[in-house]
Amino acid sequence: MTHLTRRKFGQTIAAAAALCGASPPRPAAAEPATPGSLSFPSGFLWGCATSAYQIEGAVTVDGRGPSIWDTFSHTPGKTANGETGDTADDSYHRYKEDVRLLEELGAKAYRFSISWPRVFPQGTGRPNEPGIAYYERLVDELLQHGIAPYPTLFHWDLPQALAGGWQSRDTPHAFADYAAFVTKRLSDRVHQFMTTNEFLCFTDLSYKIGQFAPGLTLDAAQVNQVRHHGILAHGLAVQAIRAHAPSGTRVGLADNPNVYIPVIETPEHIEAAKRAFREENAPFLTAVMEGRYTDAYLAREGTDAPKVAPGDMQAIGSPLDFVGLNVYQPDYVRADSSPAGYSILKKPTSFPRMASPWLYIGPEVIYWAVRTVSDLWKPPAIYITENGCSANDVPDAGRIDDTDRVMFLRNYLTHLHRAVAGHYPVKGYFLWSLLDNYEWADGYQKRFGIHYVDFATQQRIPKLSAHWYREVIARNAVR
Ligand code: PNW
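# 4-nitrophenyl beta-D-glucopyranoside complex -> structure
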């Protein structure tokens, strides 16, 4: 056997072992960089993300109250095949197994969400001790395995009992009280909190388009008020967390701004994309980062603009320690001579997408997300709090070779590396998702996990992408 074939043979065994889920032998010293390998800074935080309603199940266990997603998913015609989060991944009972999956990946951090109706079944009033105790157990399990907890306080499962939902000004105040309670219980062990997840989804998709709970289609003035209450909830929660957490606790949010890629990287198009980002996200991230609505937004909405009470904008603009960005699909912008100075391009029908029809593939969007937020507002730190994709995963002899997901992730991470190399302050990356889970109105058909879940048996199987991600984390490098 020649030296070359022996080496090849060894690599094949290691690769086969990896595919079977066993750990391939790893050299003791750091591996030498392969040509063209893209290394991340030491301490870069590699993690995975999930959310409560999408994975926990156990919706009536230990005193949890109903959320608007329980009501919505049980309403005929609202979700694919009428599917609900009643059982989901049963992670409420299997959290130790799920922490083990994180450990096997070598993940340094876990972004999960806390279910408000577990902690306050009525949304407000008396806390439910078994509800908060579950999150204490989860946090302790993570810490025992050296995994940093990154909880989000609201990932859409609003307590049903809150009259008027996000249409009511009382809801942001109830959220701040809930945030204060969670902070008091967890901030001895949890050093960072995210307030809300994705303003656009729990406001517009829920109260304007009606695609998400509670499934309403309100008029423009009402929608603007809902949006205002959403960002106010974030701002009041930032104040509540700071009031009750030890100093040094970091506070941020996870948002999914529309991100614009300059069609050509020339100064005029780059400037137009930046302007588009600020203006198209005016009701949400721009208001949070600037503590005011843009003049153009207020002019555009006219008498439909939100009613703002004294103190609201100051709360909304509370300084943040980090900005979390959920990055999925791209949009393209070019400079033009319109009053706005830009136009957003329509995508050709041939533009490639993943298994969810909305999920166009544009890996450079992750670079422009980081760069634009950084150039506009210079936050101290940025995290990618979600990135990942759905794929048509079908087990074949017990294996899921999701080469399309690996392709997607490799390309997005390559462009994230461009942001790192450009010295933008991006500190970590959370892959969506650790597990296949309840993909909201799309039910269980759209799989986003790097672990396959057999929903009949609750068995978790690492997909090829999990093996791939483990190598990324181990090498702290893409490629
Ligand atoms: C995010 N869109 O949602 C959420 O934070 C997750 O809960 C979700 O599972 C994940 O992305 C994948 O969808 C989105 O239609 C839902 O553009 C829909 C859209 C974007 C993000």
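# post-check
Confidence is low (pLDDT under 50) at residues 1-29.
Residues 13-478 form a domain with the TIM Barrel fold (CATH 3.20.20.80).
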